[in-house]
Amino acid sequence: MTGAPDVEAVWRIESARIVAALTRFTGDFELAEDAAQEAVAEALVSWPLDSPANPAGWLMAAARRRAIDAIRRRNVLRDRYALLAADLAADRPVDGEGDPDKIDDDVLALMFISCHPVLAPEARVALALRVVGGLSSEEIARAFLVPVPTVQARITRGKKTIAAAGVPFELPPAGERRERLGGVLSVLYVIFTEGSTATSGDRLLRPGVAYEAIRLARTLAALQPNEPEVHGLLALCELTAARFPARTGPDGSPVLLDEQDRRLWDISAIRRGLAALAKASTRGLGPYGLQAAIAAVHASAPSVEETDWDQIVLLYEALGRVAPSPVVELNRAVAVAMASGPAEALALVDELVASDRLSGSHLIPTVRGELLARLGRRSEARAELELAARLCTNQAERSVLLRKAAKLS
């Protein structure tokens, strides 16, 4: 999709709704996704010659035609074909009108289907990110540090498994939702993370992706009001998104935390995030709630220097106990550097280097370079930042790393 940015932009925003609507009307998850992909391929050819007035509607209509053709070729589902054909002839919208946050949201139903227990956990996440988040196989592979063919195989197997199991297109009964809730939350988290810091491309933020994750999280919170971690994830997303207006300059270049104009932070989003965090705290904080609590400390601080870094260190230590990961340890090291100085933090980062658990990621050399620079070890710091720039797949982040390295020359 790199040659047609308009197609890509519309697909990012509308893909989940299109696939969900087609799945509801055809009853065939795999057919719906294939038809949507074929519509995108058609748009890549058609739009440069004749740009549609309603791109989302064009994609929906094209995908619907593809689905009808596939059903006719199969010579099955005659009743469904008649219904679809009548809709197409009348040019009636398939995806409906009304409140986009209604509880029987098609996209949320699609997400629960993607997280069905008949699927292996890794297939659930890959499939949901593909059909709900609109992420490419390459983006999913980078997010989980696995080869692209592995992701593609998981998606293919997942679709075939759902078809073979005859999974209906509907929200599961309340008793089954809890079983799938962890998978749904993890998918929403990864979709939001991709929106808040893009894994690749020339933009730091992909707000449309992030705000769709927030919309789905709000819908899920209405559906599951007694699940603290649902509110914890919503709080994390709201508090993180509150900083979006200050995270990039007018030209889209990244603005680091210590240089951000905090007057640009979205106060309404902060209030929503704090309210969700209060709901998440009713029975103790889980992994998402703890991350939201860290974001809340940042949101309440007037500056980097006046941030309660000791509190953030404690929260990261708690997070490391309930959801240990090398990224959590690296973030704790950053907080330790602010609370206790770079020397103590560098020792923690070097332990991560020795464990080789973030091999190939730009995150460790980025943090290590910053710490070495603060310790006055300029040549070592420059080498680390240059390494981080080579490993970073986001052009906006890479430019910041290269500028930092150049200042150390």
TrEMBL record:
Residues 17-75 form the RNA polymerase sigma-70 region domain. The keyword Transmembrane helix does not apply. The keyword tRNA processing does not apply. Residues 180-280 form the DUF6596 domain. Residues 112-161 form the RNA polymerase sigma factor 70 region 4 type domain. InterPro entries: DUF6596, RNA_pol_sigma70_r2, RNA_pol_sigma70_r4_t2, RNA_pol_sigma_r2, RNA_pol_sigma_r3/r4-like, TPR-like_helical_dom_sf, WH-like_DNA-bd_sf. Keywords: Sigma factor, Transcription, Transcription regulation. Belongs to the sigma-70 factor family. ECF subfamily. This is DUF6596 domain-containing protein.
